[in-house]
Amino acid sequence: MSDMEPSTRKFSLFFLVIIFVTLALAIAAFFQAYDAYNAGQAANGHFFTLIGASGLALLTYMVFQTRRRTLRLAFVPPRITSTVLCQKCGFKNIRDFERGDFIFKKTDDCPKCKEKMSIASVFREVKEKKKKRWI
Length: 135
Ligand SMILES: [Zn+2]
Prior knowledge:
The chain is an alpha+beta fold. The chain has 2 domains: 6-75; 80-134. Helix content is 54%, strand content 18%. It has helices spanning 6-38, 42-75, 129-134, and strands at 80-85, 92-96, 106-109, 116-124. A 4-stranded antiparallel β-sheet has the order 2-1-4-3, with no helix packed on it. Strand 1 (80-85) and strand 2 (92-96) form a beta hairpin. Helix 1 (6-38) runs antiparallel to helix 2 (42-75). The structure holds zinc ion.
């Protein structure tokens, strides 16, 4: 929790307040229900039990939704790759994007013909996994 970004932490704090308020209301509703049952008012008891259960269900739903969202954010880092091409022999190498890469930039020597290679293209990989799952 401590290594999260500031914006995420701010949202989490707000979220935690909502969680605690909802939890407090749900617990209060259960106490009201308990009192009502003790007083012999079964109808009121059922009503407050329903409110408390709804609060807990909402709480579970919210926690589940947030967890799923943060997991999704954490597992999809944008991957940028650079294609390094030898103009002489056509040797092609695809590697991760490095800071300062641009198209036509001269890079390492070609492992085949020792000619200077240059970057032919820089692109971001398109995630295809999700689409495949639906087919
Ligand atoms: Zn070459």
